[in-house]
Amino acid sequence: MHQIDFYHLSSSDFIKPAVQIAEKALLHGKKTLILVPENKVSDVSVYLWSEKTDSFLAHGMKGEDVAEFSSIWLSSSSEENPISATYVILTNGILLDELAGFERVFNLFDGQEELAKEKARNQWRNWSANTHNTCRYFTQTQTGGWQHTA
Fold this sequence. Notes:
By secondary structure, this protein is an alpha/beta fold. It has a single domain (2-148), classed as 3-Layer(aba) Sandwich (Rossmann fold), CATH 3.40.50.10110. It contains 3 helices and 8 strands. It has helices spanning 15-27, 41-50, 114-128; strands at residues 2-9, 32-35, 60-61, 72-75, 87-90, 104-110, 133-140, 146-148.
């Protein structure tokens, strides 16, 4: 059984919502793979280290030998999952063909971009057609929160 949550962002800023989800996953003892375009990996890494003034979210990424100590891994490919994460966060239209190994999928997409919305719709249709999947849909509120709509 897979739970797949679609997050309709009100802007193209996916970093803050992705980090919030990863942080909540940590509180539940879950490892998280954050999939981002290759040119955004370092931006997300910097945000994870500097977002809070009193702490940081330890993580790893390609080229680092820290998988055994990391609960969050940054990558541009779902095949690169050295921490055996069971949660995966998809950003910027990154597609995931195979759900095996993941119990939860968080699909963050830019609701202002037509191509991103179409990709999300296609994934919703494909994944919700499988009775082993539970799909939910959230829209971002003006205050940055989330409203469950489907």
